[in-house]
Structures are given as structure tokens and as C-alpha cells.
Amino acid sequence: xxxxxxxxxxxxxxxxxxxxxxxxxxxxxxxxxxxxxxxxxxxxxxxxxxxxxxxxxxxxxxxxxxxxxxxxxxxxxxxxxxxxxxxxxxxxxxxxxxxxxxxxxxxxxxxxxxxxxxxxxxxxxxxxxxxxxxxxxxxxxxxxxxxxxxxxxxxxxxxxxxxxxxxxxxxxxxxxxxxxxxxxxxxxxxxxxxxxxxxxxxxxxxxxxxxxxxxxxxxxxxxxxx
Length: 226
Hints:
Put_Phosphate_transp_reg; TIGR00153 family protein; disordered N terminus; Methane Monooxygenase Hydroxylase, Chain G, domain 1; mainly alpha; DUF47; 9 helices; PhoU-like_sf
């Protein structure tokens, strides 16, 4: 159906479509995280390598689309939103894929063994962080509807509610991450110090997936408010 919104008519080829496609690829990248950590728990090197390869492929696709969008985003044409806001939103989306790549790279480059008692809370933590990224994806999928409605009305209320839920999910991951670190530190006397450091880094990075997802939602809410 053709849009009746004059702002949308001025947009030409909306950059929102590639922004949404970029976020879809980012989420495909993040979707490999449970498989990655499951492979570590199972000590399945082949499975781990396969998930890592898919992460790297998807991160490369996200980078290519990011660069293409940056190169072709209109500079002078009147946009429904500020160009700088879109670029900042894009950078926050891309940070999620970059973090997923960092996690995958470390898990493959260094042979990691999951400390006793960490496997179950680790998988719950990873899955919740993935769910938080998926919530950010749902928010970004509302961009077209926001544009259609001129960034006003019930659609804005709906998106704000989704962003609020996103923040609550990220708070869950903060609590889960701290609990996981407590489990790790409770066993640090029986684990090699360097392994403690790497696991601490991994837990931080997994939490950063959710942190960056929340930033995506917050940036979109700020964009709407303007």
C-alpha cells in the first residue's frame, strides 16, 4: 500500500530498509551464541568451529551493509530523521555483531573449559542476552510503521513500551552476569589464573551483547523524541 505520509514521499529510497536488514543480519550473528557455548561445554571442536565460521560470515555481511549504507545515506536530501542519528543507531547495531565476533574468536583461539557449576547458569545467561538482542531487532522492525505514522500516535507508545521491556531484559542479564561471575570467583583457587581472566572477559562480552542491544533501543527512543 502506498504511504499517505508526505514525509515518506520525500524519503525516496528509505534508509530504514537497509537499517532493518542490517539488524536482521546482526541477530543471525548473535543467534550462533548458544551453539558456540554449547560446543564449549561439550568440548566439541568441530561444532565450535562451524558456529564460529557462521558468526564471522554474518559479521562480514553486516559490515558490508553498514559501509554501503554509510556511503549512500543522503547528505542533503531532507530526511524524516537526522542523518547523524541514523549513523549512530547503525553503529550501535554493528557493535553487537562485532562483540559476537570477538566472543567467537576467543572461544576458538583459546581452548576453554567450563568451570564446575557454571554450565547451566552460563547457558541461561547467554540465552537471555540473545533474547535481549532479539527484542532490539523487534524494535527496529517498527521503523517503517513509525515513518508511516509520522513518528506520532499509538505506534510511538507501542515502541516506547517495547524499549522499556528491552531495558528490563537487559537488567536481567546484569543480574545473571554478576551471579555467574560469583560462581567463577568462588572457584578461582582451583582454576588457572589466566583462565579466570579469560572467563571474566567472556562474561563481560556476552553481557555487552545485551548492553548494546539496550543502547539500540535507547537511541531509537531518543530519535523518536526529536
